[in-house]
Automatic annotation (TrEMBL):
Native organism: Brachybacterium tyrofermentans
Catalysed conversion reaction: a primary alcohol + NADP(+) = an aldehyde + NADPH + H(+)
Coiled-coil positions: none
Lineage, uppermost ranks: Bacteria, Bacillati, Actinomycetota, Actinomycetes, Micrococcales
Origin superkingdom: Bacteria
Protein name listed in UniProt: alcohol dehydrogenase (NADP(+))
Amino acid sequence: MERRDLRADDVAVRVDYCGVCHSDLHALRDHGGRSAGGDEAAGASAAAAAAADETAEATDGGSSVPLVPGHEFIGVVTEIGPEVQRFAIGDVVAVGNIVDACLVCDMCTAGQENFCREFPTLTYGGVDRRDGRPTLGAYAREYVVREEFAHRVPEGLDPSAAAPLLCAGITVWEPLTALEVGPGVRVAVVGLGGLGHLAVKLATALGAETTVISRSAGKLEDARQLGAADLLVSGDGPAMAAARGRFDVIVDTVAVSHELAPYLELLALDGTLAQVGYLGPVTVETTDLLLGRKKLTSAGSGGMAKTAQLLEFCAEHGVVADVEVLPSSRVGEALDRLARGDVRFRFVLDMSDLDVDPS
C-alpha cells in the first residue's frame, strides 16, 4: 500500500495504535459481498482474511476497490507539508473517522464537519476530495492527513487506551454535551459495550447520576467499576415499571434493532432518548413521545472542535477506554472475537510489529 505524497497542508503520521470498530467488521463483510447474518464466527473469519491482505481486490462479488479499515488512531508526526502550522515533527496526534470536508458550508463553519453538506471524506472507504482516489484506513503503519483533521493528544493520555475516543468516545460525547449532561441530570446508558462503557465514564465524569440498563444483572460489578451508581435489568418488568419517569437522558448504544418504547417510558418530562448504536429504521408510537413531551434524537461522530474538547476533558478527568491491545498480526483474532462479543470493551491494534527489520 502506498500513501499519497504530502500536499502543502498534510502531515504524515506513524500509526502506533488503531482501535478496532464494529464498523470495520461490517465494512469488510460488505466489501467481500458476504452476508452479515448467519454464523458470526465464520463471517468474522472471512473478514479477517480480507483484512490480512489489505491491498487485495475482492473477487467474490464484492467491491474491486481496495479496502483498509481503521478510523480511530493515534501516532506521531513524521513529516509535514510546507504550509502546516499546527504541528511539528514528533508531535503525538489523533485522527478519527473523517479526514476532510468542504470547510465552507453552514455545518462546517458551525464546527460540525461531520455533517458537511457535501459529505465529509471518510478515513477509509471514502473518496479523496482532490484526487478522487479511495481513502485507505489506519490498519497500517502510516497515514497522511490534512492538518485540520488531526488533533494534538494532550499529555497524560495513554495513546493505546485513548485511540477509541476518536470513534466510540466522540459518538457518545456529542449527545451528552448537546443535551447539557452534568450535575443534577439523571442519565441512563443502554448497553455496556464499546460505546456504552465510554458513555458511562463520560456521563459520570460530567457529574451526572448514571445508571446502566442491561439485559444481564451480571453486569452490575462492571457498571459500578465504570462509575455507574446503579444497574437496571431491562427484562425485569417490576423494576422497569418502578423506574418509569426516572431519567432525563437515555443514551441507547444497542447496535441491533430493538423496541424503543420501553426506554421512552423511563424518561421524565421533556426527557430525551439519544439513539447512537443502531442506525437503521425504527418505529415509534407518537403517543410515546407525546406523553411527557419526550424527544428522540441521534448522533454520530463529531466535529473537530468537539473532538478536541473531548480529548482535553478526558486528559483532565483521566477518562480512556478499557482496551485489550493486540499486535496487528493478530487482527484476525480481534475480528473473530469482536463478532462473538468476546471483548471488554474495545480492541486496539499495536502497529509497531509492521516495522521492517533493516537486517
